[in-house]
Design brief:
Oligomer: single chain
Number of helices: 13
Shape: globular
Number of strands: 6
Order of helices and strands: HEEHHHHHHHHEHEHEEHH
Helix content: 25-40%
Structural class: mainly alpha
Distance between the termini: 23 Å
Radius of gyration: 21 Å
Largest sheet: 2 strands, antiparallel
Strand content: under 5%
């Protein structure tokens, strides 16, 4: 699920949008049980798309089905691999036509608790509307559904007796018709149901596991003023963009972390300049959403453009208060970026600190998420 410039596809998008509500309910849907530890509350769910097992299983099947792309070659799962916590291990992803995206594919794990979607877009607030980006976006092309292929994609599914039965079970009598609004709701239901809350750190919080000395030092440091990690990577999902059924005021901050400073005045490389691309405000240059740190040890490379290869490199970047690139087209001192979050300058880390933080971050890996048949490819 990446930010993309969505070019409207005429009546197709208009009809899909007409079927998607914007209001979120404040209580979990009936008939669905969230299996969560005590430090999690259930997420908010749209009123018109309550969680059901039938929709979840249908959405899982659609998520892994390449027939959902215009040319029949790529599925949602082509850029979101379960064993990589639903990322793809690439700096940037490749769409169904071979076109590269501008940004790295973020994990879908725990996306139900994220009040905004993609790296730098405050206007996409639910998974249903976000699906319009990979499905119908033209810059870049991801799944590549357009006016020339929209009926072809639906006919592939309508011609499958198993899909007809699954849509009918999920949506009732109207499900037999198989519409884009229905398949979007099903995929969104699957994505909301992909939960990561059983890492060794979660077990530690529940009193069921212990941390090593290094991991414990890293944990204490992570939540300290000296490291500043938790000032942005906060809450049960380790991000300052978080909302659940108890949330009264939803915050959606975006941050510049001094990754670039091309002109000495804060510039990031085009066309990947963060929130500025949407807002047009100079102060939004290089501002991106704080990604969850859950399963971060298996989601390399890092940053919005995958430009840092390792966790050690990420910590070097923050310890230096920004990245300095000595030569080439990206040269510049990110630590002097005028739009940088000032909290970076408070960070004080030595070599042992960084090693301990890496040890702690590895405790956030949820092996159950990476291997559970519930989230796996149903076609295998």
């Amino acid at each position: 699920m990446r930010h993309a410039s969505l070019v409207a596809c005429g009546a197709l998008l208009a009809s899909v949008l007409a079927g998607l509500a914007t209001e979120r309910q404040l209580q979990p849907a009936s008939g669905w049980r969230w299996s969560l530890p005590g430090h999690f509350q259930p997420p908010r769910v749209p009123l018109d798309n309550p969680m059901t097992e039938e929709k979840f299983q249908l959405g899982r099947r659609l998520f892994y089905d390449p027939r959902l792309s215009g040319n029949g070659t790529q599925a949602c799962a082509s850029c979101h691999f379960q064993h990589l916590a639903f990322t793809d291990g690439k700096a940037v992803s490749t769409g169904s036509t071979g076109e590269e995206t501008a940004r790295s594919a973020p994990s879908i794990a725990n996306v139900a608790w994220s009040p905004t979607l993609t790296w730098a877009n405050y206007s996409i607030l639910d998974l249903e509307r976000h699906m319009l980006v990979p499905m119908f976006g033209e810059n870049p092309v991801e799944l590549g559904i357009d006016d020339s292929t929209r009926e072809t994609v639906l006919q592939r599914l309508r011609g499958d007796a198993d899909y007809r039965a699954r849509f009918a079970r999920a949506f009732g009598p109207a499900g037999g018709q198989i519409s884009y609004a229905q398949l979007i709701q099903a995929i969104a239901t699957f994505q909301r149901g992909v939960v990561s809350a059983n890492s060794r750190y979660d077990q530690y919080l529940a009193g069921k596991a212990q941390l090593s000395d290094s991991e414990e030092r890293g944990r204490a440091l992570f939540f300290s003023e000296r490291a500043q990690c938790a000032s942005c990577h906060s809450g049960p999902n380790f991000t300052d963009q978080y909302a659940d059924v108890t949330t009264q005021e939803v915050r959606t901050p975006f941050h510049n972390t001094g990754l670039y400073n091309l002109d000495g005045q804060g510039a990031y490389p085009e066309p990947n300049r963060g929130l500025l691309e949407l807002s047009g405000k100079p102060a939004d240059m290089g501002a991106f959403r704080t990604q969850s740190l859950r399963n971060v040890a298996v989601t390399a490379p890092y940053m919005h453009d995958g430009s840092i290869a390792t966790l050690e490199g990420v910590l070097d970047h923050y310890a230096a208060h920004g990245r300095s690139i000595a030569s080439g087209p990206m040269a510049g001192d990110g630590s002097r970026n005028p739009f940088k979050d000032p909290r970076l300058d408070r960070i004080r880390l030595d070599a042992r600190d960084k090693a301990d933080l890496v040890a702690f971050l590895k405790t956030l890996t949820d092996e159950q998420l990476l291997t559970s048949p519930r989230y796996a490819d149903p076609f295998k």
